[in-house]
Amino acid sequence: MNPFIELGIRHDIVNAITELGFEKPTPIQEQAVPVLLTGSNDFVGLAQTGTGKTAAFGLPLLELLDFSQKHPQALVLCPTRELCLQIAKDIEKFAKNIPNVHVVAVYGGASISDQLRQIRRGVQIVVATPGRMLDIIGRDAIDFSNVKYVVLDEADEMLNMGFQEDINNILSTTPDEKKTWLFSATMPAEVRRIAKNYMTDPFELTVGTKNSGNANIEHHYYVVRARDKYAAFKRIVDSNPEIFGIVFCRTKVETQEIAEALIKDGYNADSLHGDLSQQQRDKVMKRYRDRSLQLLIATDVAARGIDVNDVTHVINFSLPDEIENYTHRSGRTARAGKTGISISLVNLKELGKIRQIEKVIGKPFVKMEVPKGDAVVEKQLFALINKVHEVAVNDDHIDRYLPQIMESFADLSKEEIIKRFASLEFNRFLEYYQNAPDLNVDAHEARSGDRRGKAERFGRDGYKSDYTRLFINLGSVDDFTRGDILGYICNTTNISGKAIGKIDLKGVYTFFEVENSSVDKVFRGFQNVDFNGRSVRVENAGEGRGDSRGGEKRTRSFRNGGGESGGRRKRESGGGFRDFGGKRREKSRW
Ligand code: AMP
Predict the structure, then answer these.
(1) Which residues form the DEAD-box RNA helicase Q domain (predicted)?
(2) Which ligand 1 atom sits closest to the C-alpha of 24?
(3) Which domains does the chain have, with CATH numbers?
(4) pLDDT at 336
Protein backbone atom coordinates (compact mmCIF):
# COMPACT_ATOMS: atom_id res chain seq x y z
CA MET A 1 0.00 0.00 0.00
CA ASN A 2 1.17 3.52 -0.69
CA PRO A 3 2.69 4.74 2.59
CA PHE A 4 0.75 8.02 2.43
CA ILE A 5 -2.52 6.05 2.35
CA GLU A 6 -1.30 4.27 5.45
CA LEU A 7 -0.80 7.65 7.09
CA GLY A 8 -4.48 8.41 6.46
CA ILE A 9 -4.29 10.52 3.31
CA ARG A 10 -7.04 9.94 0.76
CA HIS A 11 -6.44 8.56 -2.73
CA ASP A 12 -7.19 11.82 -4.57
CA ILE A 13 -4.41 13.59 -2.71
CA VAL A 14 -2.01 10.66 -2.86
CA ASN A 15 -2.44 10.53 -6.64
CA ALA A 16 -1.58 14.21 -6.87
CA ILE A 17 1.53 13.98 -4.70
CA THR A 18 2.66 10.82 -6.47
CA GLU A 19 2.72 12.89 -9.63
CA LEU A 20 4.97 15.33 -7.78
CA GLY A 21 7.36 12.46 -7.09
CA PHE A 22 6.49 11.91 -3.43
CA GLU A 23 6.93 8.17 -3.07
CA LYS A 24 7.21 7.94 0.66
CA PRO A 25 6.75 10.41 3.49
CA THR A 26 9.73 12.38 4.77
CA PRO A 27 10.41 11.92 8.53
CA ILE A 28 8.47 15.05 9.50
CA GLN A 29 5.52 13.98 7.34
CA GLU A 30 5.58 10.50 8.77
CA GLN A 31 5.46 11.77 12.31
CA ALA A 32 3.38 14.92 12.01
CA VAL A 33 0.62 13.86 9.62
CA PRO A 34 -1.08 11.30 11.90
CA VAL A 35 -1.04 13.77 14.81
CA LEU A 36 -2.34 16.70 12.79
CA LEU A 37 -5.01 14.61 11.10
CA THR A 38 -6.75 14.23 14.44
CA GLY A 39 -7.37 17.99 14.30
CA SER A 40 -7.41 18.11 18.04
CA ASN A 41 -3.89 19.13 18.99
CA ASP A 42 -1.81 22.21 19.08
CA PHE A 43 1.49 21.27 17.58
CA VAL A 44 5.15 22.35 17.62
CA GLY A 45 7.40 20.88 14.95
CA LEU A 46 11.10 21.54 15.02
CA ALA A 47 12.35 20.95 11.51
CA GLN A 48 14.69 22.55 9.03
CA THR A 49 13.59 24.03 5.76
CA GLY A 50 13.52 21.54 2.93
CA THR A 51 12.37 18.64 5.07
CA GLY A 52 8.89 18.47 3.57
CA LYS A 53 7.16 20.69 6.13
CA THR A 54 4.67 22.12 3.67
CA ALA A 55 3.12 18.74 2.97
CA ALA A 56 3.37 17.84 6.68
CA PHE A 57 0.78 20.52 7.44
CA GLY A 58 -0.72 20.96 3.96
CA LEU A 59 -1.97 17.40 3.56
CA PRO A 60 -3.76 17.32 6.94
CA LEU A 61 -5.35 20.70 6.19
CA LEU A 62 -6.78 19.30 2.98
CA GLU A 63 -8.23 16.38 4.91
CA LEU A 64 -9.68 18.50 7.70
CA LEU A 65 -11.28 21.47 5.96
CA ASP A 66 -14.78 21.62 4.56
CA PHE A 67 -14.46 22.72 0.96
CA SER A 68 -18.20 22.98 0.41
CA GLN A 69 -17.92 26.14 2.53
CA LYS A 70 -16.22 29.19 1.09
CA HIS A 71 -14.99 31.02 4.18
CA PRO A 72 -11.43 31.03 5.57
CA GLN A 73 -10.85 27.97 7.71
CA ALA A 74 -7.06 27.85 7.77
CA LEU A 75 -4.48 30.61 7.98
CA VAL A 76 -0.82 29.93 7.25
CA LEU A 77 1.58 32.70 8.29
CA CYS A 78 5.11 32.68 6.93
CA PRO A 79 7.95 35.20 6.82
CA THR A 80 8.51 35.97 3.14
CA ARG A 81 6.72 36.52 -0.10
CA GLU A 82 8.68 33.73 -1.78
CA LEU A 83 7.73 31.21 0.85
CA CYS A 84 4.15 32.43 0.83
CA LEU A 85 3.84 31.87 -2.91
CA GLN A 86 5.55 28.52 -2.65
CA ILE A 87 3.28 27.24 0.10
CA ALA A 88 0.14 28.39 -1.71
CA LYS A 89 1.33 26.78 -4.94
CA ASP A 90 2.27 23.53 -3.19
CA ILE A 91 -1.09 23.25 -1.46
CA GLU A 92 -2.86 23.86 -4.76
CA LYS A 93 -0.81 21.09 -6.32
CA PHE A 94 -1.63 18.68 -3.49
CA ALA A 95 -5.31 19.60 -3.94
CA LYS A 96 -5.28 19.16 -7.69
CA ASN A 97 -7.92 16.40 -7.61
CA ILE A 98 -10.17 17.90 -4.94
CA PRO A 99 -12.92 20.18 -6.21
CA ASN A 100 -13.59 23.66 -4.85
CA VAL A 101 -10.33 24.17 -3.00
CA HIS A 102 -9.47 27.85 -2.94
CA VAL A 103 -6.10 29.04 -1.68
CA VAL A 104 -5.01 32.67 -1.66
CA ALA A 105 -1.49 33.97 -1.24
CA VAL A 106 -1.45 37.29 0.57
CA TYR A 107 1.88 39.12 0.54
CA GLY A 108 3.35 42.57 0.14
CA GLY A 109 4.85 43.98 -3.01
CA ALA A 110 1.94 42.94 -5.20
CA SER A 111 -1.45 44.42 -5.96
CA ILE A 112 -3.65 44.30 -2.89
CA SER A 113 -6.81 44.65 -4.99
CA ASP A 114 -6.16 41.30 -6.72
CA GLN A 115 -5.74 39.64 -3.37
CA LEU A 116 -8.89 41.30 -2.01
CA ARG A 117 -10.81 40.12 -5.06
CA GLN A 118 -9.70 36.55 -4.51
CA ILE A 119 -10.70 36.75 -0.86
CA ARG A 120 -14.12 38.12 -1.78
CA ARG A 121 -14.65 35.26 -4.20
CA GLY A 122 -14.28 32.85 -1.29
CA VAL A 123 -11.23 31.02 0.05
CA GLN A 124 -10.70 28.30 2.60
CA ILE A 125 -6.92 28.56 3.00
CA VAL A 126 -5.14 31.89 3.39
CA VAL A 127 -1.36 31.82 3.14
CA ALA A 128 0.07 35.16 4.20
CA THR A 129 3.01 37.25 5.27
CA PRO A 130 2.13 39.13 8.45
CA GLY A 131 2.42 42.73 7.20
CA ARG A 132 -0.02 42.43 4.29
CA MET A 133 -2.33 40.19 6.31
CA LEU A 134 -2.66 42.86 8.93
CA ASP A 135 -3.31 45.44 6.26
CA ILE A 136 -6.20 43.37 4.92
CA ILE A 137 -7.57 42.73 8.40
CA GLY A 138 -7.35 46.49 9.01
CA ARG A 139 -9.58 47.05 5.99
CA ASP A 140 -12.15 44.71 7.44
CA ALA A 141 -11.81 42.70 4.26
CA ILE A 142 -11.56 39.24 5.78
CA ASP A 143 -13.47 37.30 8.39
CA PHE A 144 -11.41 34.90 10.47
CA SER A 145 -14.19 33.99 12.89
CA ASN A 146 -14.43 30.48 11.44
CA VAL A 147 -10.72 29.74 11.30
CA LYS A 148 -10.01 26.31 12.72
CA TYR A 149 -6.27 26.02 12.10
CA VAL A 150 -3.45 28.53 12.18
CA VAL A 151 -0.03 27.45 10.93
CA LEU A 152 3.00 29.51 11.91
CA ASP A 153 5.67 28.44 9.45
CA GLU A 154 9.33 29.34 9.99
CA ALA A 155 8.26 30.91 13.27
CA ASP A 156 11.84 31.72 14.26
CA GLU A 157 12.33 33.65 11.02
CA MET A 158 9.13 35.60 11.53
CA LEU A 159 10.25 36.62 14.99
CA ASN A 160 13.75 37.43 13.76
CA MET A 161 12.16 39.77 11.30
CA GLY A 162 10.21 41.56 13.97
CA PHE A 163 6.75 40.21 13.19
CA GLN A 164 5.89 39.33 16.80
CA GLU A 165 3.43 42.17 17.27
CA ASP A 166 1.79 41.63 13.89
CA ILE A 167 1.35 37.95 14.67
CA ASN A 168 -0.25 38.80 18.01
CA ASN A 169 -2.65 41.17 16.30
CA ILE A 170 -3.55 38.69 13.58
CA LEU A 171 -4.09 35.83 16.00
CA SER A 172 -6.36 37.98 18.12
CA THR A 173 -8.84 38.03 15.22
CA THR A 174 -9.08 34.22 15.15
CA PRO A 175 -11.26 32.14 17.48
CA ASP A 176 -9.79 30.94 20.79
CA GLU A 177 -10.67 27.33 20.06
CA LYS A 178 -8.63 27.12 16.84
CA LYS A 179 -5.63 24.81 16.78
CA THR A 180 -2.19 26.30 16.25
CA TRP A 181 0.56 24.41 14.46
CA LEU A 182 3.99 25.94 14.74
CA PHE A 183 6.99 24.98 12.64
CA SER A 184 10.44 26.33 13.29
CA ALA A 185 13.99 25.44 12.33
CA THR A 186 15.30 26.56 15.71
CA MET A 187 13.75 27.01 19.11
CA PRO A 188 15.00 30.27 20.64
CA ALA A 189 13.31 31.58 23.77
CA GLU A 190 11.03 33.85 21.72
CA VAL A 191 9.53 30.89 19.84
CA ARG A 192 9.23 28.96 23.06
CA ARG A 193 7.26 31.90 24.45
CA ILE A 194 4.84 31.84 21.52
CA ALA A 195 4.28 28.15 22.09
CA LYS A 196 3.60 28.86 25.74
CA ASN A 197 1.32 31.83 25.19
CA TYR A 198 -0.75 30.57 22.30
CA MET A 199 -0.94 26.85 22.73
CA THR A 200 -2.43 24.39 25.08
CA ASP A 201 -0.28 21.37 25.78
CA PRO A 202 1.10 21.18 22.24
CA PHE A 203 2.30 17.95 20.73
CA GLU A 204 6.03 18.48 20.22
CA LEU A 205 8.03 16.89 17.50
CA THR A 206 11.69 17.25 16.69
CA VAL A 207 13.01 15.94 13.45
CA GLY A 208 16.78 15.54 13.76
CA THR A 209 18.52 16.93 16.78
CA LYS A 210 17.29 20.13 18.26
CA ASN A 211 18.83 23.14 16.52
CA SER A 212 20.96 20.81 14.49
CA GLY A 213 21.53 21.18 10.84
CA ASN A 214 20.20 18.76 8.33
CA ALA A 215 22.12 15.49 8.59
CA ASN A 216 22.73 15.54 4.85
CA ILE A 217 24.78 18.72 5.05
CA GLU A 218 28.54 18.57 5.38
CA HIS A 219 30.10 21.62 6.98
CA HIS A 220 33.50 22.67 5.67
CA TYR A 221 35.70 25.61 6.52
CA TYR A 222 38.78 27.13 4.93
CA VAL A 223 41.20 29.39 6.78
CA VAL A 224 42.44 32.18 4.56
CA ARG A 225 43.80 35.67 4.94
CA ALA A 226 41.24 38.41 4.47
CA ARG A 227 42.98 39.65 1.35
CA ASP A 228 42.99 36.17 -0.21
CA LYS A 229 39.36 35.45 0.48
CA TYR A 230 38.05 36.21 -2.97
CA ALA A 231 40.86 34.31 -4.70
CA ALA A 232 40.29 31.33 -2.38
CA PHE A 233 36.58 31.48 -3.04
CA LYS A 234 37.19 31.38 -6.79
CA ARG A 235 39.45 28.39 -6.41
CA ILE A 236 36.79 26.55 -4.47
CA VAL A 237 34.24 27.38 -7.16
CA ASP A 238 36.65 26.42 -9.93
CA SER A 239 37.41 23.12 -8.30
CA ASN A 240 33.68 22.35 -8.22
CA PRO A 241 32.77 22.83 -11.88
CA GLU A 242 29.21 21.59 -11.37
CA ILE A 243 28.53 23.92 -8.47
CA PHE A 244 25.03 25.39 -8.17
CA GLY A 245 25.44 27.57 -5.16
CA ILE A 246 24.22 30.36 -2.94
CA VAL A 247 26.94 32.66 -1.63
CA PHE A 248 26.10 34.56 1.52
CA CYS A 249 27.52 37.94 2.36
CA ARG A 250 26.88 40.06 5.40
CA THR A 251 26.11 43.32 3.65
CA LYS A 252 24.43 44.52 0.55
CA VAL A 253 27.58 46.26 -0.63
CA GLU A 254 29.66 43.14 -0.21
CA THR A 255 27.00 41.18 -2.08
CA GLN A 256 27.19 43.59 -4.99
CA GLU A 257 30.95 43.67 -5.00
CA ILE A 258 31.34 39.92 -5.06
CA ALA A 259 28.72 39.52 -7.77
CA GLU A 260 30.37 42.20 -9.87
CA ALA A 261 33.81 40.76 -9.44
CA LEU A 262 32.51 37.31 -10.39
CA ILE A 263 30.70 38.58 -13.46
CA LYS A 264 33.83 40.44 -14.49
CA ASP A 265 35.77 37.22 -14.04
CA GLY A 266 33.39 35.36 -16.33
CA TYR A 267 31.13 33.50 -13.90
CA ASN A 268 27.37 33.16 -14.20
CA ALA A 269 26.54 35.07 -11.06
CA ASP A 270 24.19 37.76 -9.85
CA SER A 271 23.22 39.36 -6.57
CA LEU A 272 20.04 39.34 -4.54
CA HIS A 273 19.62 41.97 -1.86
CA GLY A 274 17.13 44.33 -0.31
CA ASP A 275 17.87 47.29 -2.58
CA LEU A 276 16.39 45.51 -5.58
CA SER A 277 12.75 46.06 -6.41
CA GLN A 278 10.49 43.04 -6.17
CA GLN A 279 10.50 42.82 -9.94
CA GLN A 280 14.29 42.75 -10.07
CA ARG A 281 14.42 40.13 -7.33
CA ASP A 282 11.94 37.96 -9.20
CA LYS A 283 14.05 38.27 -12.33
CA VAL A 284 17.23 37.20 -10.55
CA MET A 285 15.42 34.31 -8.89
CA LYS A 286 13.96 33.17 -12.17
CA ARG A 287 17.42 33.10 -13.74
CA TYR A 288 18.74 31.15 -10.78
CA ARG A 289 15.89 28.65 -10.82
CA ASP A 290 16.35 28.22 -14.58
CA ARG A 291 20.04 27.58 -13.94
CA SER A 292 21.12 30.50 -16.11
CA LEU A 293 22.94 31.55 -12.96
CA GLN A 294 25.33 29.20 -11.31
CA LEU A 295 26.00 31.38 -8.30
CA LEU A 296 23.51 33.53 -6.44
CA ILE A 297 25.15 36.07 -4.15
CA ALA A 298 22.74 37.04 -1.40
CA THR A 299 22.27 38.73 1.92
CA ASP A 300 20.59 36.75 4.69
CA VAL A 301 17.37 38.66 4.52
CA ALA A 302 17.07 38.54 0.75
CA ALA A 303 17.70 34.79 0.70
CA ARG A 304 14.99 33.93 3.21
CA GLY A 305 12.40 31.67 1.77
CA ILE A 306 14.49 30.70 -1.24
CA ASP A 307 13.49 27.16 -1.88
CA VAL A 308 15.43 26.02 -4.86
CA ASN A 309 16.12 22.32 -4.83
CA ASP A 310 19.46 20.89 -5.91
CA VAL A 311 21.57 23.68 -4.46
CA THR A 312 24.90 21.89 -4.17
CA HIS A 313 26.81 24.38 -2.04
CA VAL A 314 26.09 27.17 0.37
CA ILE A 315 29.13 29.39 0.71
CA ASN A 316 29.50 31.69 3.66
CA PHE A 317 31.75 34.29 2.10
CA SER A 318 31.30 36.07 5.41
CA LEU A 319 29.94 34.36 8.49
CA PRO A 320 26.55 35.64 9.58
CA ASP A 321 26.20 38.14 12.40
CA GLU A 322 23.81 35.91 14.26
CA ILE A 323 24.74 32.29 14.84
CA GLU A 324 21.18 31.16 14.21
CA ASN A 325 21.44 32.49 10.68
CA TYR A 326 24.06 29.87 9.90
CA THR A 327 21.38 27.20 10.21
CA HIS A 328 19.09 29.12 7.89
CA ARG A 329 21.85 29.64 5.37
CA SER A 330 23.03 26.06 5.30
CA GLY A 331 19.42 24.86 5.14
CA ARG A 332 19.27 26.18 1.56
CA THR A 333 21.17 23.11 0.46
CA ALA A 334 20.47 19.40 1.02
CA ARG A 335 16.75 19.82 0.47
CA ALA A 336 14.31 17.02 -0.21
CA GLY A 337 16.67 14.27 0.88
CA LYS A 338 19.61 15.46 -1.23
CA THR A 339 23.10 16.07 0.11
CA GLY A 340 24.87 19.40 0.20
CA ILE A 341 27.95 21.21 1.44
CA SER A 342 28.05 24.36 3.51
CA ILE A 343 31.39 26.13 3.17
CA SER A 344 32.72 28.91 5.37
CA LEU A 345 35.67 31.12 4.54
CA VAL A 346 37.22 32.38 7.73
CA ASN A 347 40.36 34.03 9.01
CA LEU A 348 42.16 32.84 12.11
CA LYS A 349 40.32 35.27 14.34
CA GLU A 350 37.03 33.72 13.29
CA LEU A 351 37.90 30.17 14.24
CA GLY A 352 36.14 30.69 17.56
CA LYS A 353 32.93 31.36 15.64
CA ILE A 354 33.25 28.04 13.86
CA ARG A 355 33.54 26.32 17.24
CA GLN A 356 30.41 28.15 18.43
CA ILE A 357 28.45 27.13 15.35
CA GLU A 358 29.55 23.55 15.89
CA LYS A 359 27.96 23.69 19.31
CA VAL A 360 24.73 25.08 17.95
CA ILE A 361 24.37 22.62 15.09
CA GLY A 362 25.75 19.73 17.12
CA LYS A 363 28.02 18.67 14.29
CA PRO A 364 31.74 19.14 13.64
CA PHE A 365 33.12 21.16 10.76
CA VAL A 366 35.75 19.64 8.52
CA LYS A 367 38.81 21.82 7.92
CA MET A 368 39.61 21.90 4.24
CA GLU A 369 42.65 23.09 2.34
CA VAL A 370 42.15 25.70 -0.36
CA PRO A 371 42.94 23.70 -3.50
CA LYS A 372 46.31 24.41 -5.06
CA GLY A 373 46.34 25.79 -8.58
CA ASP A 374 47.26 22.47 -10.22
CA ALA A 375 44.46 20.65 -8.41
CA VAL A 376 41.93 23.17 -9.74
CA VAL A 377 43.31 22.81 -13.23
CA GLU A 378 42.98 19.04 -13.01
CA LYS A 379 39.39 19.27 -11.78
CA GLN A 380 38.48 21.57 -14.66
CA LEU A 381 40.18 19.36 -17.18
CA PHE A 382 38.30 16.27 -16.11
CA ALA A 383 35.04 18.16 -15.92
CA LEU A 384 35.62 19.06 -19.53
CA ILE A 385 36.38 15.48 -20.45
CA ASN A 386 33.25 14.41 -18.63
CA LYS A 387 31.23 16.95 -20.58
CA VAL A 388 32.52 15.46 -23.80
CA HIS A 389 31.27 12.06 -22.68
CA GLU A 390 27.88 13.39 -21.78
CA VAL A 391 27.18 15.92 -24.48
CA ALA A 392 24.02 15.23 -26.47
CA VAL A 393 25.02 14.96 -30.11
CA ASN A 394 22.50 16.22 -32.59
CA ASP A 395 23.35 13.93 -35.51
CA ASP A 396 20.95 15.62 -37.91
CA HIS A 397 22.64 18.94 -37.54
CA ILE A 398 26.25 17.94 -37.16
CA ASP A 399 26.28 15.30 -39.91
CA ARG A 400 26.33 17.70 -42.77
CA TYR A 401 29.42 19.49 -41.43
CA LEU A 402 31.28 16.30 -40.58
CA PRO A 403 33.01 15.67 -43.91
CA GLN A 404 34.46 19.16 -43.84
CA ILE A 405 35.47 18.81 -40.19
CA MET A 406 37.12 15.45 -40.90
CA GLU A 407 38.98 16.91 -43.81
CA SER A 408 40.35 19.78 -41.82
CA PHE A 409 41.62 17.38 -39.15
CA ALA A 410 43.06 14.93 -41.66
CA ASP A 411 46.64 15.94 -40.95
CA LEU A 412 46.30 15.50 -37.17
CA SER A 413 46.51 12.27 -35.20
CA LYS A 414 43.77 11.35 -32.75
CA GLU A 415 46.11 12.16 -29.84
CA GLU A 416 46.92 15.53 -31.37
CA ILE A 417 43.25 16.39 -31.83
CA ILE A 418 42.41 15.43 -28.26
CA LYS A 419 45.29 17.47 -26.94
CA ARG A 420 44.31 20.56 -28.89
CA PHE A 421 40.66 20.21 -28.11
CA ALA A 422 41.30 19.91 -24.39
CA SER A 423 43.67 22.86 -24.50
CA LEU A 424 41.04 25.04 -26.07
CA GLU A 425 39.04 25.44 -22.87
CA PHE A 426 41.79 24.53 -20.63
CA ASN A 427 44.51 27.05 -21.43
CA ARG A 428 42.51 29.73 -19.67
CA PHE A 429 42.74 27.83 -16.40
CA LEU A 430 46.33 26.79 -16.97
CA GLU A 431 47.33 30.37 -17.53
CA TYR A 432 45.36 31.66 -14.59
CA TYR A 433 46.61 29.09 -12.15
CA GLN A 434 50.18 28.92 -13.35
CA ASN A 435 52.36 29.98 -10.43
CA ALA A 436 49.24 30.43 -8.29
CA PRO A 437 50.31 30.79 -4.66
CA ASP A 438 49.20 28.57 -1.81
CA LEU A 439 46.33 30.44 -0.17
CA ASN A 440 46.17 28.41 3.02
CA VAL A 441 47.51 30.15 6.07
CA ASP A 442 49.49 29.02 9.00
CA ALA A 443 49.12 30.89 12.24
CA HIS A 444 52.16 33.09 11.85
CA GLU A 445 51.38 34.21 8.32
CA ALA A 446 47.78 34.89 9.14
CA ARG A 447 48.59 37.31 11.88
CA SER A 448 50.72 39.51 9.70
CA GLY A 449 48.49 38.94 6.68
CA ASP A 450 45.27 40.00 8.29
CA ARG A 451 46.72 43.30 9.24
CA ARG A 452 47.37 43.98 5.60
CA GLY A 453 44.13 42.44 4.50
CA LYS A 454 41.59 45.21 4.68
CA ALA A 455 43.15 47.54 2.16
CA GLU A 456 43.57 44.74 -0.36
CA ARG A 457 40.08 43.39 -0.22
CA PHE A 458 39.91 42.43 -3.81
CA GLY A 459 43.60 42.04 -4.22
CA ARG A 460 45.57 43.41 -7.02
CA ASP A 461 43.02 45.33 -9.05
CA GLY A 462 42.09 47.65 -6.20
CA TYR A 463 41.24 51.32 -6.50
CA LYS A 464 43.63 54.24 -6.14
CA SER A 465 44.69 54.74 -2.56
CA ASP A 466 44.19 58.53 -2.38
CA TYR A 467 40.60 58.02 -3.44
CA THR A 468 37.77 56.43 -1.52
CA ARG A 469 35.32 54.24 -3.34
CA LEU A 470 31.72 55.09 -2.60
CA PHE A 471 28.42 53.48 -3.43
CA ILE A 472 25.30 55.40 -4.44
CA ASN A 473 21.91 53.75 -4.97
CA LEU A 474 21.30 55.38 -8.35
CA GLY A 475 22.32 53.97 -11.68
CA SER A 476 21.45 53.51 -15.32
CA VAL A 477 17.89 52.41 -14.50
CA ASP A 478 17.40 55.96 -13.24
CA ASP A 479 18.41 57.16 -16.70
CA PHE A 480 21.85 58.33 -15.65
CA THR A 481 24.85 58.16 -17.92
CA ARG A 482 28.31 58.38 -16.37
CA GLY A 483 28.44 62.03 -17.31
CA ASP A 484 25.01 62.65 -15.80
CA ILE A 485 25.88 61.05 -12.52
CA LEU A 486 29.13 62.96 -12.34
CA GLY A 487 27.19 66.19 -12.81
CA TYR A 488 24.55 65.13 -10.33
CA ILE A 489 27.10 64.31 -7.62
CA CYS A 490 28.98 67.57 -8.19
CA ASN A 491 25.83 69.68 -8.15
CA THR A 492 24.39 67.98 -5.10
CA THR A 493 27.55 68.10 -3.01
CA ASN A 494 29.26 71.19 -4.37
CA ILE A 495 32.52 69.40 -5.08
CA SER A 496 34.54 69.80 -8.21
CA GLY A 497 34.43 67.15 -10.91
CA LYS A 498 38.20 66.89 -10.52
CA ALA A 499 37.69 65.34 -7.09
CA ILE A 500 35.88 62.42 -8.65
CA GLY A 501 37.81 59.48 -10.05
CA LYS A 502 36.58 56.35 -11.70
CA ILE A 503 32.81 55.91 -12.08
CA ASP A 504 31.33 52.41 -12.45
CA LEU A 505 27.74 52.96 -13.53
CA LYS A 506 25.58 49.90 -12.89
CA GLY A 507 21.89 49.15 -13.20
CA VAL A 508 20.49 50.15 -9.84
CA TYR A 509 23.62 51.59 -8.29
CA THR A 510 26.97 53.15 -9.07
CA PHE A 511 30.41 52.98 -7.54
CA PHE A 512 32.46 56.14 -7.76
CA GLU A 513 35.81 57.26 -6.43
CA VAL A 514 36.15 60.50 -4.52
CA GLU A 515 39.35 62.17 -3.32
CA ASN A 516 39.74 61.35 0.34
CA SER A 517 39.63 65.05 1.24
CA SER A 518 36.14 65.39 -0.32
CA VAL A 519 34.51 62.29 1.10
CA ASP A 520 32.93 64.02 4.10
CA LYS A 521 31.54 66.70 1.84
CA VAL A 522 29.89 64.06 -0.32
CA PHE A 523 28.30 62.36 2.69
CA ARG A 524 27.08 65.70 4.02
CA GLY A 525 25.78 66.74 0.61
CA PHE A 526 23.67 63.62 0.28
CA GLN A 527 22.00 63.81 3.67
CA ASN A 528 18.23 63.73 3.25
CA VAL A 529 18.35 63.94 -0.52
CA ASP A 530 15.54 62.44 -2.55
CA PHE A 531 15.61 61.45 -6.18
CA ASN A 532 12.24 60.85 -7.81
CA GLY A 533 10.75 60.21 -4.39
CA ARG A 534 13.49 57.79 -3.39
CA SER A 535 15.93 58.43 -0.58
CA VAL A 536 19.41 58.70 -2.05
CA ARG A 537 21.93 56.66 -0.14
CA VAL A 538 25.70 56.99 -0.30
CA GLU A 539 27.90 54.52 1.48
CA ASN A 540 31.53 53.68 1.75
CA ALA A 541 31.89 50.78 -0.65
CA GLY A 542 35.24 49.59 0.59
CA GLU A 543 34.16 48.96 4.14
CA GLY A 544 31.27 46.71 3.35
CA ARG A 545 28.60 49.07 4.60
CA GLY A 546 25.09 48.37 3.56
CA ASP A 547 22.42 46.35 5.13
CA SER A 548 24.45 45.48 8.19
CA ARG A 549 21.34 46.40 10.11
CA GLY A 550 19.44 44.40 7.56
CA GLY A 551 17.43 42.28 9.96
CA GLU A 552 15.64 45.22 11.46
CA LYS A 553 15.28 47.20 8.31
CA ARG A 554 14.13 44.45 6.08
CA THR A 555 11.38 43.85 8.57
CA ARG A 556 10.00 47.16 7.49
CA SER A 557 10.52 46.43 3.86
CA PHE A 558 8.53 43.22 4.04
CA ARG A 559 5.87 44.82 6.11
CA ASN A 560 5.57 47.62 3.67
CA GLY A 561 5.21 45.13 0.98
CA GLY A 562 8.35 44.81 -1.03
CA GLY A 563 12.05 45.13 -1.32
CA GLU A 564 11.99 48.73 -2.40
CA SER A 565 10.79 50.27 0.77
CA GLY A 566 14.20 49.94 2.39
CA GLY A 567 15.50 52.23 -0.31
CA ARG A 568 12.71 54.73 0.15
CA ARG A 569 13.26 55.32 3.80
CA LYS A 570 14.90 58.45 5.07
CA ARG A 571 18.20 58.26 6.78
CA GLU A 572 17.57 58.60 10.49
CA SER A 573 20.79 60.29 11.46
CA GLY A 574 22.87 62.39 9.19
CA GLY A 575 26.32 61.13 10.03
CA GLY A 576 25.18 57.62 10.66
CA PHE A 577 27.12 55.86 7.95
CA ARG A 578 30.23 55.31 9.93
CA ASP A 579 28.46 54.07 12.97
CA PHE A 580 26.69 51.17 11.34
CA GLY A 581 29.46 48.65 11.73
CA GLY A 582 30.17 49.59 15.31
CA LYS A 583 26.56 49.40 16.37
CA ARG A 584 26.15 46.08 14.74
CA ARG A 585 29.15 44.63 16.41
CA GLU A 586 27.79 45.55 19.81
CA LYS A 587 24.60 43.71 19.01
CA SER A 588 26.35 40.73 17.49
CA ARG A 589 25.79 37.50 19.32
CA TRP A 590 29.24 36.09 18.78
P1 AMP B 1 9.42 21.83 1.98
O2 AMP B 1 10.26 21.58 3.21
O3 AMP B 1 7.99 21.65 2.23
O4 AMP B 1 9.76 23.16 1.36
O5 AMP B 1 9.82 20.71 0.88
C6 AMP B 1 11.09 20.67 0.29
C7 AMP B 1 11.04 19.97 -1.04
O8 AMP B 1 10.84 18.56 -0.86
C9 AMP B 1 9.93 20.43 -1.95
O10 AMP B 1 10.46 20.58 -3.25
C11 AMP B 1 8.93 19.31 -1.93
O12 AMP B 1 8.24 19.23 -3.15
C13 AMP B 1 9.80 18.10 -1.70
N14 AMP B 1 9.10 17.02 -0.95
C15 AMP B 1 8.31 17.18 0.12
N16 AMP B 1 7.86 15.99 0.56
C17 AMP B 1 8.40 15.05 -0.25
C18 AMP B 1 8.32 13.63 -0.31
N19 AMP B 1 7.60 12.93 0.56
N20 AMP B 1 9.01 13.00 -1.27
C21 AMP B 1 9.74 13.70 -2.17
N22 AMP B 1 9.87 15.05 -2.17
C23 AMP B 1 9.21 15.72 -1.21
Answers:
(1) 2-30
(2) 19
(3) 3-206 (3.40.50.300), 217-370 (3.40.50.300), 374-433 (no CATH), 463-568 (3.30.70.330)
(4) 67
